[in-house]
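Input record (one chain):
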Amino acid sequence: MSSPHIKSAAVAAALSALDEGRTPERPVLREAVRALLTVLAERAPGRSVEVRVPPYGAVQCVPGPRHTRGTPANVVEMAPDTWLAVATGRLGWGDAITQGRVRVSGIRADLSGYLPL
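The corresponding structure, as predicted from the sequence alone:
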């Protein structure tokens, strides 16, 4: 089942701008990032990993022990353009890690089983 968030106008507009070498407009990029984070949270329900895409959003996802206070033990953080690329399959998870475009900490912070969306 495909989520409507993946086919959102904001995601399409942001990817189009990036393909053309332009920076997407801030509201469009924010909406695209949040839409794809929503899909991730739906597909990997849980609260053991926090995925951060500053400054636009963060979600807790992935089954496992729930994080409740302080800095989560399992964190994934990346720039908005990297998030759009890995979420849509334009950049593989392993390649993003190897290139240093994604910062991960914790034993559950591997999202390769959930990406691309």
